Amino acid sequence: MDIIWIAVSAFMGGVVAAVLGWLDSKEAFEVRKFSASLVRALVAAVVFAVGYQYSNVITPMAIAVAFCGGAGVDALGNRMAGSIKAGLGR
């Protein structure tokens, strides 16, 4: 059951990063961009859940790390997508 808390925390970290990025951009909401962030957040949730599956104890610090990791995965994925898009000349 503790693994679910890690997965939810990582997922919510990605979602919060996506929402804050959208608010900072002052652009109109685009479902396509937000859905890509949701996919990245889901990937982060699965990765963190699998990683913590082998841990005996899940602490509040582990949940905080998963949250920050989820936000980091979304931020990194967003930057990589932007770099690829710029490299393609779009």
Keywords:
90 residues, elongated
Poorly predicted runs: none
Give the total of beta strands. Answer: 0
* Terminal Cα span: 44 Å
Strand content: under 5%
Apparent shape: elongated
What series of H and E elements makes up the topology? HHH
Using only C-alpha atoms, the radius of gyration works out to 14 Å
- Mean model confidence by pLDDT: 87
Q: How can the largest sheet be summarized? A: none
**What fraction, in percent, of the residue positions are helical?**
over 70%
Structural class: mainly alpha
Would you write up a description of this structure?
The chain is an all-alpha fold. Helix content is 82%, strand content 0%. α1 (2-25) packs across α3 and α2 packs across α3 (60-87). The longest helix is centred in the last third of the chain and has 28 residues, at 60-87. The protein starts with a helix and ends with a helix.
